[in-house]
Amino acid sequence: MILTASRRIDKLPATGQYVLDQFKAQTTWVGSLFMGGPNPETGKLTTLTVHTGKTLNLNNEFPKATALWKDVESAWERYVTACFAPDTAEKLHEAYHKLTPEADRLISSSPSTTSSPSPPPPDGSASNSSNAKKRKRAKRKESPTSPSP
């Protein structure tokens, strides 16, 4: 199966959650993973956050455990915006849509077009319901590209 750029981006929360869960299993540490960049299919900057760990008292993940989450999220979005030229996402979007039909044709005719499966969970099961719930909580946000303030 050939994955489009957007579908690859859509898979990042599950990959990030797997990594964070492995860190927690190895160290008992909690963590957050912040990612962001241009989405070639939408022409917008996209930010993602994934978290592991919960507070003891209310069982909240980091975004719900702090009143400052909106400030953290805004700071991350400003940082991602500052990492790319203002027109990067739009140019990538234009280039992607010009190349996609030809690239899809070339890729689909290649014998090595299968995507690699995600690493299996350490318990050997194909998936578990708690990981599925965590994946749903991953935050994805798109915003129009604009220069940073």
The level of helicity is: 40-55%
Cα-atom radius of gyration: 18 Å
- The helix tally amounts to 5
What's the overall geometry?
Answer: globular
- How many E strands? 3
Q: Beta-strand level of the residues, as a percent range? A: 15-25%
Question: Largest sheet, if any?
Answer: 3 strands, antiparallel
Question: How confident is the prediction overall: mean pLDDT?
Answer: 76
Secondary-structure element series = HEEHHHHE
Give the strand order of the largest sheet, numbering strands 1, 2, ... along the chain: 1-2-3
Low-confidence stretches: 110-118, 120-137, 145-149
Query: Alpha-carbon distance between the termini?
Result: 41 Å
User: What structural category do the secondary elements indicate?
Assistant: alpha+beta
Written description of the protein model:
α1 crosses α5 (129-137). The termini are far apart. A hairpin with a 4-residue loop joins β1 (31-39) and β2 (44-52). This protein is an alpha+beta fold and 149 residues long. It has 5 helices and 3 strands, in the order αββααααβ. A 3-stranded antiparallel beta sheet has the order 1-2-3, sandwiched between helices. It has a domain at 8-25 and 33-109.
